[in-house]
Each structure stands twice: as structure tokens, then as C-alpha cells.
Amino acid sequence: MAKSTLFERLFRKKTIAQIQQDLDVGEHGSLVKTLTLLDLTCFGIAAVIGAGIFSTIGTASFDGGPAISILFVITGFACLFSALCYAEFASTIPVSGSAYTYSFTAFGELIAWLIGWNLLMEYSIGNSVLAFAWSEYFMNLVDGMQTWLAGYGMNFKIPEWLYHDHFSCSRAPAEMAKILREGGVPSESLKKLVEVWEGAPQFMGTRFLIDVPALMINFIITTLVILGIQESKMVSNAMVFLKLGVILLIVVVGVNYVQPKNWSPFAPNGLEGVFKGIAAVFFAYIGFDAISTTAEECRNAQRDIPRATLLTLVLCTVIYIILAFVLTGMVSYTELNVQDPLAFVFSKYGVQSMVGIVSLSAVVATASVFLVFQLGQPRIFMSMARDGLLPKKFAEVHPRFKTPAFSSLITGLMVALPTIFFSAQFVTDLAAIGTLFAFMLVSAGILVVGRGNNTDHDGYRRGFCVPYINGRWLIPVCFAIYTVLLPGLPANHFFFGSWWTPEGFHYDRIPYLVFYAVFAGLTVASIRFQWSAIPVLGIAVNLYLIAGLGAENWARFGIWCIIGLLVYGFYSYHHSALRDR
Q1: pLDDT one-digit tens code per residue, 382-408
Q2: What SS3 class is residue 206?
Q3: Fold of the 3-142+215-452 domain
Q4: pTM higher than 0.85 for the full model?
Q5: Hey, how many other C-beta atoms are within 10 angstroms of the C-beta on 235?
Q6: Are 215 and 412 a contacting pair, CB within 8 Å?
Q7: Where are the domains of the chain?
Q8: How far is residue 430's CA from residue 283's CA, in Å, rounded to a whole number?
Q9: C-alpha to C-alpha distance for 219 and 516, rounded to whole angstroms
């Protein structure tokens, strides 16, 4: 086979007309169009406002002080770059598949496969993170109930080995021994894990631990997703309204305890302290892209998906800013380095009723995010199967429930396995890099297919276009500012000078070197081709955050991509529907 032929086959693209034709044929069944603008916006809020608002906002406030509110504005604006790109693609190609389908039209089959493969990390593995978080919040709520019931003579205790993951506990004794050998002091959380490990029952010489609440929420949500989109949206909307009601209650009650003196100094650690929390704050916004996975079930996808995406970002940014001001006004920022800041500030003032309400709302908030992400992955599987890159079984729609039931079942299994075999931190890093990689390529896709007008090359009318802002001057200015600030950034950003030190080779500099090289290339291309600034900044922002995840996670990501390429080479390439055409 000639190299040119192989290249053409690997990067063959689907036109919008082909995508629409496949959808019209509908040999595997069609989905029910039931979602409105309100439903989509609720899905977006459900996906974005989750565990992050109950945990990471505290750590970010501790680092940046009251000025963290500015970081929410900046991060919301940065997310807007990717959100606008998603909105244009969703408006132009209103079908399931999200970034996978968009990449197929922009870059071709191989890149689309890699995106679809990596979306597994955002939705399936990402939901394993949420399962761990939900389990923790749920057990906090149960602990509170145990204390309350004990006052009435009803004592019960759930064994700790039934709500801790095996991976973290199994490694805890070795980590504790190492710390003690080096003369350090183990943390209380590490001591707790060792205690749980040593108290766990043994089966055939192996200690048995399993996070039952994490598996339980996965089973419940998977069942709900299979039963139907109508049922899913009703539950999601109810949880969102409950969640927003609790947030409003937190603000109304919390304002009474705000002391303006706590807002001074506004930025106690300067800009460095503010931007230290940028990664945590950015991840609090992840989820708006899940809206686009429901495109086939929207009554008016071209109009409503862009609106819902932008509404979600605006509303969530406003909510985050208000909460940040209330939180930092109630107590000093120096006290907020805790895992449950919203519950902590009310317990400090002795408002125990609010502590219980916050704990309950954390359980609901995490479950709502879980639901939206569990809806997204099966629809991506379905789109990939339609293209022949996965077995046809993944594209089947249940005749009664009108949902991709088999894909939903497989998604539930893929969420369950990491909760059994891995730790929360391990799957968190994988989910983050997969998500940001998808954001980056969707932004790049707009540079490939974006026209800046309302009609594309095959006559398919766009409902929304990313506003064109000439990047010829703006991008070089941004690159110059970053270069000037480089010496003042953390050491792993600065790649000049010796890479070998007494501590060893600085692998952690490699990701930032890659980012700087790509940013330089984007700057040159923006000058030469007058690229639109918004998608270019979308690429730069997401790649910078990927660099912040470290060289070790880049290596894991590379291994995951290699596995994906092997699957593509042995199965997907040979069964591609485009190849048959």
C-alpha cells in the first residue's frame, strides 16, 4: 500500500452531510427529542456545580484570599474560549458524540478515534472520581446520623473496610514506614488508612476492602440512565433546583455572619497566591461540554445548545464569585485549608443545622454531576459504533427505553472497575488530562473548519459562530507577556539553564517546554495566517493546564494513547464505515 493511501485512510474525514445521512438512516434506532433550553441549562449546571464547590473552593481561598473571586472571573473567561468552540460545533453538527464527532469533521478518523478514546477518561474514569467523592460525602452524612441516633440509644457502626478503596489502604503501611524511617511525622489521614488496612478481613491471604457506597451510586445512576432520558432529566432538574436552593440558603444565612475585616488584605499572597489555585478552580468548571453529548435528544439543538453552554458558564461564574465572597467574609482565609469549607464555616459559628444541610447538598450535588457524565459516555460510544470503530452492539437503542442501554451498561462497568482497583488521586489525574486534551482539540478544530460566516462549504447552515477576533496582534502580545513573566513563575516553568541538579534530572520542566514551543508556533501562525484569537487562546490555556499536571501524568497519558492506537490498528481501522464507502 502506498504511503499516501495509508495517510488518506488514517485521516479520512466525514462531511456534515454524511453525518446527517447516517443519522437519518437510523438502522440501530433513534433517540427521543425531549430536551429544552431549560433542561440543557440544568444539565450544564448539574455537571459544573458539583464536588468542587464543596471542597476545592476552600483550598483556593486559602492560597489566594478574598481575591480568589477574581480568579473565578479569569477562569470563567478562559473556559469561555473552549465553550464558544463547543457551541459552534454543536450548532453546526447537532448529533451525539461531542468532541469525537467534531474531530472527525476537522482532523479525520485517527484523531477522532484518539479523542473518543480519551473521552473515556473524562466521562467513565472521571465518574470514578465522582464515585469516590460521593462515597466520602455520603459517609460523612451517615456519620452525622450515627451520632444523632446514638442520642436515642440506637447505636450502629458500618465497618470501615466497606467504604475505603483497596489501592490507597494497601499502600499506606509502606508509605508510613518510609516517613518514620526518615524521621517524619505521618499525617492523621495516613494513620487512618493504615488502621483500616490492618482491621480489614482477609480472604485467601489477601485483605478485602471495597468502597460499597461508590459502587452503589454507580449502580443507581446507571439504572436511571438506561430507563430513559425523560426520567434522567426530571431527576437532574430536581437535583439542580435543590442544589441552587441550598446555595441560596447558604448565601442568605452566611451573609449574617460576614465580617468585612476578613476581606482585608484582599490578595494576601499576591498574584502568585491567586494563580496557585488556577488548576483547582478550572476543574470546578469542567462539565459544560457534557451538554453537547445530548444533541440528538434536543428539540432545537442548533439554537439551544450554544445558549445553554453560555448560560451555564455565566450562571456558575456568578454563583462561584458570590460564594467566594461569603466564604472569605465569614472567616479568615487562613482557616479555609479544609476539605469541607462550607460546612466548616457554619460549624465554627455553631450553626449545626446548616452543617447538616451542606452535607446533604454535597451528596446531591455530586450525584447530579455523576448523572450528567453517565449520560454522556454511552452517547459517545454510540457515535463511534455508528462509524464502525466499535462493535455495532454499542450503537443499539433499546426498543422500549429509547436509550443506548448496552453502552450505558458498559459505561457503568468501566466506572466500577477503577473504584475497585485504583485510588481517587490516580483516576483524578487521568480524567483531568483526558478532558483538557479534548478541550484543546475542539478549539484547534475551529481553526480548521471555522469560516466566520453562517454557511459552510456543503451548504449546512450554522446556528452559531465563534466571533472572529484577529489574533495577529493579540496572540503575540499574550506570548510576550508570558515570556516576561516566565522567570517569576515556579521553577518547573523556567526551562533555561541546567536541567541536571543534585536532586536529579528535571523531568517536570518538559511539559512546560512543550507548551512554550507550541505557544511560540501558534504565535507565528497567528501573525502569518491571521488566525482567530479565541480558538488559539483555547488551545494555549488548555495546554498550559495539561502541562501543570506533570511529566508523570504525561507518561500515563502516552501509555493510554498507545493502547488506544493498538485497539484502532487491530479492530477499528478494519471495520471503519468510511473504509467500506
Answers
A1: 888 888 899 988 888 888 878 888 888
A2: strand
A3: Amino acid/polyamine transporter I (1.20.1740)
A4: no
A5: 18
A6: no
A7: 3-142+215-452, 166-209
A8: 13
A9: 44
